[in-house]
Every structure is written in C-alpha cells, then in structure tokens.
Design brief:
Blueprint lengths: L2 H7 L1 E8 L5 H11 L22 H10 L5 E6 L2 E6 L8 H8 L4 E7 L6 H13 L3 E6 L8 H12 L2 E4 L1 E4 L7 E4 L4 E4 L9 E4 L8 H5 L1 H17 L5 H5 L3 E6 L8 H11 L6 E2 L4 E2 L7 E9 L8 E9 L2 E2 L4 E3 L4 E3 L5 E4 L2 E4 L2 E2 L4 E6 L8 E3 L16 E7 L5 H13 L4 E5 L5 E5 L2 H15 L3 E5 L4 E7 L2 H10 L4 E3 L5 E5 L2 H10 L3 E4 L5
Parallel strand pairs: 1-3, 1-4, 4-5, 5-11, 6-11
Antiparallel strand pairs: 2-3, 7-8, 8-9, 9-10, 12-13, 14-15, 14-23, 15-22, 16-21, 17-18, 17-23, 19-20, 19-22, 24-26, 24-27, 25-26, 25-29, 28-30, 28-31, 29-30
Helix pairs in contact: 4-5, 11-12
The chain binds guanosine-5',3'-tetraphosphate.
The site of guanosine-5',3'-tetraphosphate has 18 residues, from α2.
Length: 526
C-alpha cells in the first residue's frame, strides 16, 4: 500500500449539522474531548452565534472571525485522522453551510428528541440527498422528555426523505432515562448524569437474558425486549453499503451534554463512515489515491479588519499529496502558485503545515487570488463540479450611492460575490444588478463592507421576487419562446447562465404548466 493510500484509509472528513440549539456545539466538544484535542468541557469557541446578538451583525462577524480556527477541527482518534468541518449556526449564513457540505465525505445530523426534525435540518438534508452524502443521526437530549422514539423514527424518515435504522435504543427518557441498548456493539450502556465521565457498559448480546432486570428494572426490561422485537420486525439489519450510498441513516440516541452515547457514536462512525471519496470534475472523476495533487476552494473567510484585507481560502484536498512550497497550477489563471504558509487545523490550533492528504482541509492565506470553486492541481486542467448555488430567499436591487465611486463599487461587489457572501444576478431587460441572500443580515454585511473596505456607498431598492430558477430544456425553440415571453424576468448568474426570476409561486406554477419542456431548478447544478 502506498503512503497516500494509508493516509486516505484513516481519514474521516465530516460535518455536524442541526437546527440551532439541538446540540451541535456540545456534541462537537465531546468528540474533541475523546480525541484529546481539548481537555476540558467548555473549551470550544463555537461558531454558535449568541441568540441575544442576532440583530448585531458586527458582533456576529466578530464571532465568526474568532471561529476561523474552529472552522475545521482535526484530531487523531485511535488510528484515525478526523476532520470536523464546522458550519455556522445562524441561518442567515446557510449558504456557507451548503458549500461546506460540498467538502465533506459524510454528515452527522443532530436532532433534539423533543423537537424532532426542524426547518434548517430539513433544508440541509436536501443538499445531502442531492449529493448522496452518507448521513448518521444522533438523537440528543434523551435526559429530557421528548417524542416516542418510534414516532421520531417515522418522522425522520418522512421529513428527511431517507430510510433509517436504529443502532442504539433508548431505555426510557427524561428523569427515568436509564441508558441505551447498543444494538451495534451488543452491549448495555448505562446512563449516569455527568458532564465528563465515560459511560458504564455491560456486554449484553441478548436482551432476553434475565440479567437485564438487574440493571434497568422490570418494566424497563419488559419494554426494551418488546421494542427490540418490534425493531427487528420492522427494520432490515443494518447494511453498510446502503448507508455509504446515502440511502440509509443509522440512528443513535444519547445526551451530548452528559457525554452519553457520544463515544459509541464515534466508535461506530470511524468504522463505517466513508474515507475520502472520488470527486467529479467536468473532465473526469478524480480518485483520492492518484499521485498527482488536486483540490478545490469551498470557503473563503475574509478578515474584517480593513487594514489587513487578507482572506483565508479553505482548500479541500481531493487527490495526491499537498506539499508546502511546491508549485501548483491555479487552473482559472493558468499559472503556477506556491504557498509558503499553508495552515492545517489540528485540535484548535492553526499551524503551518508541510504536507496534507486527501480529506484534509488546509487554509491558504490569500489576497484576492481565489474564488469559490477554484481548482489547484499538479498541472492538469480540472474543474471540480458540485459546488452549486442555491436560489436565494431574499432579493434586492443594488444601486450606486456615489457616482464618483462606481469603479470601487463594482470591484467590491465582484470580490464579495467571489467570496460567496451573496449571489448577484443581472437583469437582462434593464441591466440592473440584483443581490440575492438567504437572510436580511447579509445585506447589512455587504453595505458595511463596501463602505469600509472599498470606500463605496450602495443603496438597496426593493424588488419583489420569490425564487431564482436555473432553466434548461432540450427544446431550444420553447426555451427561446419562454425567454422572449418573460424577458423582463430573465437574468444571468455569475457564470452567465440563464436564470428566471419568478416573482411568485403562482407565476412559477403557471410557467411550468405552459412550458412543459422546460425544467426549472432551484440550484445551479442539476
Ligand atoms: P447548537 O450548537 O446546536 O446550537 O446547540 P448547543 O450545543 O449550544 O446546545 C444548545 C443548548 O442545549 C445548550 O443549552 C446545551 O447545554 C443544551 N444541551 C445540549 N445537549 C444537551 C443534552 O443532551 N441534554 C440537555 N438537557 N441539554 C443539552 P443552553 O442553555 O442554550 O446553553 P448553555 O448555557 O448550557 O451553554
């Protein structure tokens, strides 16, 4: 086995996603504790944005700034190298999360047992489904009263659109929570509320063993046996291949706050979660074990300090070995670049790294060379696919407030869009620029940054739009007819693709009805 193959086999790169408050930060922290990356609970400076500060975006940006180091958390566990990619908690930065999901090989979804599947989880799962990303589910807060676990499993299947298979099963909940039966490892994990200790486990390969009563009492034992019988009746045995294809989500139950069920999740995760997967490019499929290096930029984090307008571009390594001070081809520029200070994110520290392997994320200090989606290679012209844009939720016209500064404004908008702060569309009818975002906050961020970093003033003007739809058709005549009919609503995106800006759900429905040969997509890749 080559050195690269060995390194690939031990890598697991994933993201934890959840609706705010389900317990993502707490779970991340506990995983880091197991990896020895931190030594006390409470050490994670999370990407979580304090609820009280939601209207104060400067504060949010500051917190995001702090969290650059925690954007990626690498640590060693057993013989594995684990990379957790953090995702912003605030929903206005959901676009950032979508892109982060393009750089992971699998996902852990955290669900609150009382709240079940919530809005943001549903949306993020759509991206996973689209990309066939394998997902695992952790049902959190079992120390609190919540939904009946069978009902919750049905809800997960229906709401997330994926088959599920419990690999652990809770014994009661809330104050009466006794622990879980670990179906995957065939043991009984007994619960004791505590923030730091590790679970007490008993080997238990058969719940019919009369010893069960001794540990969890008669009625709990009765219930557990009944539940396990039902589970075996309803669900097929867990099948790793179906999980790896993105069609089956194993489910674990626990309490992140009490460090319960977390190690069990991690132990199963490292065994079954995928190693870095092959990546699609426009030219061909790139396999991680190829000798020649390649990778793509999926995130750019700007420094908010106007005196140091530097960024960190986050690069996911897709194949080969990355080495410091070696020349690599920036495919869009067609020129060679080398990096003297690439950083790796180990534990919670950022440090200069000499080499990195597929699955790893490195930070490249950048002064405007990179756009989201850019490719670096050993020399080959490759263009990675799968960093789609999603239809924004909110739209506004952006107008120049200071005619003397129009150059600055255009440069500023171009750079902010390259960084992925928001999306820009150009209306084909009047040439006006439309900015689309996921939340109101981004408009404020853009206005502030244009003023402070580019010395340009902008003004927002309302526009009533519902969705941006990327359109395609094999029937070019119909496509032309549609564009003529809707000329006032046609725009182009950053890559010059045709986008129909639908102003209401009704209009879109009518358009779908009238133009049967046209496909309307809410994302730029289909
Ligand atoms: P997030 O990153 O998904 O937004 O969630 P986070 O981990 O911050 O958790 C949200 C809240 O839920 C926190 O409480 C956290 O302590 C609590 N929590 C997490 N896991 C569990 C669990 O297993 N059981 C119970 N009962 N609570 C849990 P908070 O009061 O908002 O914050 P804090 O003051 O405790 O930090």
């Amino acid at each position: 086995m080559t050195e690269i193959e060995q390194e690939i086999l031990r890598r697991r790169t994933f993201a934890i996603i959840s609706h705010p408050d389900a317990g993502k930060t707490t779970l991340t922290e506990k995983l880091l504790l197991f990896g020895g990356a931190i030594h006390v609970a409470g050490a994670v400076k999370s990407n979580k944005i304090k609820k009280t500060a939601t209207s104060d975006w400067m504060e949010i940006e500051k917190q995001r700034g702090i969290s650059v180091a925690t954007s990626v958390m690498g640590f060693e566990y057993d013989s594995y190298k684990i990379n957790i990619l953090d995702t912003p908690g605030h929903q206005d930065f959901a676009e950032d999360t979508f892109r982060t999901l393009t750089a992971v090989d699998s996902v852990i979804i955290v669900v609150d047992v009382a709240k079940g599947v919530e809005a943001q989880t549903r949306k993020l799962m759509e991206v996973c489904r689209m990309r066939k990303t394998p997902v695992m589910i952790f049902v959190n807060k079992m120390d609190r009263l919540g939904k009946n676990p069978f009902d919750l499993l049905d809800e997960l299947e229906a709401e997330l659109g994926i088959a599920v298979r419990p690999l652990s099963w809770p014994i009661n909940q809330g104050q009466e929570f006794k622990g879980v039966y670990n179906i995957y490892q065939q043991k009984l994990d007994l619960y004791k509320p505590s923030k730091q200790t590790v679970t007490e486990s008993v080997e238990f390969d058969d719940v019919n063993n009369p010893e069960l009563e001794k540990y969890i009492g008669e009625s709990n034992a009765f219930q557990l046996r009944d539940d396990i019988r039902i589970i075996d009746g309803i669900y097929n045995p867990f099948d790793k291949d179906t999980y790896l294809k993105g069609n089956l989500a194993p489910v674990f139950f626990g309490s992140a706050l009490n460090n319960f069920g977390v190690k069990e999740l991690l132990d199963c995760f490292v065994k079954i979660a995928p190693t870095p997967r092959p990546t699609k490019t426009e030219e061909r499929i790139v396999r991680p074990e190829e000798e020649s290096f390649s990778g793509f930029i999926f995130k750019i984090h700007a420094n908010m300090d106007p005196n140091h307008r530097s960024c960190i571009a986050f690069l996911k390594i897709c194949s080969g070995k990355f080495e410091r001070n070696v020349n690599y081809k920036h495919v869009r520029f067609g020129k060679m670049l080398k990096f003297s200070a690439p950083t790796a994110f180990m534990a919670q520290k950022k440090s200069v790294v000499d080499e990195a392997y597929p699955g790893d994320i490195i930070g490249l200090p950048d002064t405007g060379n990179f756009k989201i989606g850019d490719t670096l290679t050993g020399g080959e012209d490759l263009h990675f696919k799968g960093i789609p844009s999603f239809s924004p939720e909110m739209f506004k016209y952006i107008e120049n407030e200071d005619p003397m500064k129009s150059k600055q404004l255009h440069k500023g908008i171009d750079q902010l869009m390259d960084e992925g702060v928001a999306q820009r569309f150009t209306n084909q009818f009047n040439g006006r620029k439309i900015i689309g975002t996921v939340g109101q906050l981004q408009f404020e961020v853009i206005q502030y940054r244009l003023e402070h970093e580019y010395n340009a003033l902008c003004r927002w003007e309302p526009i009533n739009l519902y969705k941006a739809c990327w359109i395609e058709s094999d029937n070019s005549e119909e496509l032309d007819n549609f564009k003529k009919r809707k000329y006032q609503y046609m725009a182009t995106d950053k890559d010059g693709r045709d986008v129909f800006m639908a102003d209401s759900e009704y209009v879109l429905r009518m358009a779908r009805n009238d133009f049967k040969d046209i496909r309307f997509h809410f994302s730029s890749e289909f």
